[in-house]
Amino acid sequence: MAARRNEDNDLPKVKPTKENILKATRIFKFLKPYQGRYILGLIFLALTAATAIGFPILLSKLINASGVSPTGGGLDMINNPKLSPDQLIKNINDYGLILLALFLGQAVFSFFRVMLFVDVTESMLADIRKAVYNRLVQMPMSFFSAHRVGELTSRISTDISQLQDTFTTTIAEFLRQFIIIIGGIIALAFFSPQLSLVMLAIIPIMAVMTIIFGRFIRKVAKQVQDNIAESNTIVEETMQGIASVKAFANEAYEIFRYNRATNNVAALAKKGGIYRGAFASFIILGLFGGIVFIIWYATRMLAEGTLTVGEMIGFLLFTVMVGASFGGIAELYAQIQKALGSTERIMDLLEEHPEPLDTSYISANEKLKLKGEIMFTDVRFSYPSRPESEILQGLSFKVRVGEKIAIVGPSGAGKSTIIQLLMRFYNPNAGVISYDGKDAQDYALTSLRNNIAIVPQDVLLFGGSIKENIAYGKPGATDEEIIEAAKKANAHSFVTGFTDGYETIVGDRGTQLSGGQRQRIAIARAVLKNPAILLLDEATSSLDSESEKLVQEALDKLMLGRTSVIIAHRLSTIRDADRILVVDKGQIVESGSHEELIRNTEGIYHNLSKLQFEINDNSKKEFSEN
Predict the structure, then answer these.
(1) Which helix (H) or strand (E) holds 395?
(2) Does some domain include residue 1?
(3) Which residues have a Cβ under 8 Å from the Cβ of 589 and sit 6 or more positions away?
(4) Which of 61, 175, 230, 511 could form a cystine bridge with 507, CB 3.0-4.6 A?
């Protein structure tokens, strides 16, 4: 909860403008299905505020019914001598019962107000969360390249939580305080116009100044905490890197750094102490002094006979209520400013353009099944974040159905970019990518991707079980299908070696499994998907020799009868490819089998092969010597 409050405090406030208010009001479309209940909640809110205003009025009448005039005697008896003691007691009891009914009504109104606002808000926020998440997962890869994951998750967590507080509490409380201020000022004028002018000249100003002063002190306190955190960072860094500190004989430097940070903390804290002392003096002299002045003025009016005891008590209660509401409404307005910023960020996301994932023109009984032919025709591409750098420069090649081709080349040549274009994570800036002779962009995106499987270098597993991760390739797959896929991926033996077997939890991002095990789970996932086209993006480059052998065996089984495109740094893994394409500076510069390319001693492939052979030879030599 503390962390949550800190996040809320760090939310930026947005100055209300016509533009951002109009944008923020679009969030109310999510309120529309529940507007009847929300309006009913507003009615109960108004009734709650009305009963709050009625309390000082009725209390004033109760005190007047039983109070004492400056000369002694019941006020009602003085004003109306015909009242008997029994009638006086009856009036007191009547006002007491009315006050009891008032409190009972306020309790009922408050219950229904809170219940309705929470019910409506939670339903609305559930719709917003689903809409935001649905939009996020449908956004193109270019969107995720331009936004940090933390920023996006903040939209669902912190920003929507801010809306939760706003619609459940802040708006309702803001309206309630506003009604109390207006109603309270009218009631004060009714009690005593003269005294109400005195109150309005003192209390609201003092209340607002108190809020402003308090906010300034909190800001200084936050600066102190930030400086303390900075000094603690120095301690942490020094202790973690103590070997480096001593190796460079920098103990004096680290002491100087910490002393400087500590002195800054002390100086700022002392400054804050001066402000807090001034604030305490202001509260005593200003706010309490103002209240005492009003009490003094009211007591004089009481002595002069222009104010009754009940009116004085009622007036003081209204003064406290109005003053508190003035102070509270300033804080509530600051919360609304934060909510305005949160709403604006959420609406910005909801108004982003998602990928065209509509598959409505394919009937429910018809599933697209590609044969697997791929063709790049004069494809040019640059990433949206780097439009000036063209990665692919007129790339053209064809992959026949069932052919296994490998793409190699130096770093930055555009190999992984080809994979991303094949998956349609991006569309080319120029040229055409076609499948089975048809432009890739003419296929429904979901249907096209259902025909392609990718096994990447860094496999991301979800935090559930091994079974769930394999089934991700075909949601709803039977246990028999999952086990068969695992066997084909050389994963069944190690999975059954775990105590929980296929129910074994893989941990966050699959950290409970080794790299080779994660790769084989990814291959099992691809086997289960049964794609027409298989993409391997350096699937074995980060594995040790034993794991590489097992993974490569599984990949060989998976590639049988499928169109396969392999990106590889280890040339030893692609010797058996039907064709090898060498890419350099976004173009195909060499093409052929391993034997054909290796004979070209001036070619890039030959040089890459020679370089890897020398590196491997040196590594083996060093290993044997050690």
Answers:
(1) strand 392-399
(2) no
(3) 582, 583, 604
(4) 511
Domain boundary among 293, 325, 354: 354
Q: What are phi and psi of 68, to 5 degrees?
A: -125, 135
Gap between the Cα atoms of 30 and 127, Å rounded: 7
Q: Are residues 548 and 511 in the same domain?
A: no
pLDDT tens readout for residues 128-165: 888 888 888 888 888 887 777 777 777 777 778 777 77
Is the same domain home to 245 and 267? yes
Q: What is the CA radius of gyration of the chain?
A: 37
Query: How distant, in Å, are the alpha carbons of 408, 537, 577, 588 from that of 379?
Result: 18, 20, 23, 11
Domain that holds residue 604: 372-451+533-626
Among the three residues 267, 291, 306, which one is the final residue of a domain in this structure?
306
Starting at the edge strand found earlier in the chain, the sheet holding 587-592 runs: 452-455, 533-537, 563-567, 404-408, 579-584, 587-592
Residue with token string 């956004």: 139
Shared-domain flag, residues 537 and 523: no
Is 168 inside a domain boundary? yes
Cα distances from 605 to residues 376, 564, 609, in angstroms, run 21, 20, 6
Contact 582, 597 (CB under 8 A): yes
Query: What is the rounded CA–CA span in Å between residue 298 and residue 197?
Result: 12
Residues 550 and 480 in one domain: no
One-letter amino acid at 296 equals W
Please indicate, yes or no, whether residues 77 and 185 belong to a single structural domain of this protein.
yes
Give ∠ CA 150-357-455 in degrees, rounded to 5: 65
Please give the Cα distance from 222 to 528 (Å, whole number). Answer: 54
Amino acid letter, residue 356: P
Helices 35-66, 309-350: axis angle to 10 degrees equals 170
154 and 255 belong to one structural domain: no
Q: Where residue 107 sits, what CATH number does that domain have?
A: 1.20.1560.10
Q: Are residues 144 and 62 located together in one domain of the fold?
A: yes
Number of domains the chain contains: 4
Residue carrying the six token digits 């590594």: 619
Q: Is residue 542 part of a domain?
A: yes
35 and 181, same structural domain?
Answer: yes
**Exposed e or buried b for every residue in 456-484, given b needs 16+ CB within 10 A?**
bbebebeeebbbbbbbbbbeebeeebbbb
Give dist(CA 483, CA 86) in Å, integer: 91
Report which secondary-structure segment, H or E, holds 195. Answer: helix 193-240
pLDDT number for residue 494: 86
Residues 6+ apart with CB under 8 A from 4: 161
For residue 325, being part of any structural domain is answered with no
SS3 string, 341-377, reads: HHHHHHHHHHCCCCCCCCCCCCCCCCCCCCCCCEEEE
User: From the CB of residue 204, how many other CB atoms can be counted at a distance below 10 Å?
Assistant: 18
* Regions of the chain with pLDDT less than 50: 1-9, 67-81, 359-366, 615-626
State the DSSP H helix or E strand holding residue 538, giving kind and residue range, or none if neither: none
Question: What pLDDT, on a 0 to 100 scale, did the predictor assign at position 72?
Answer: 41
Cα gap 374→409, rounded to integer Å: 20
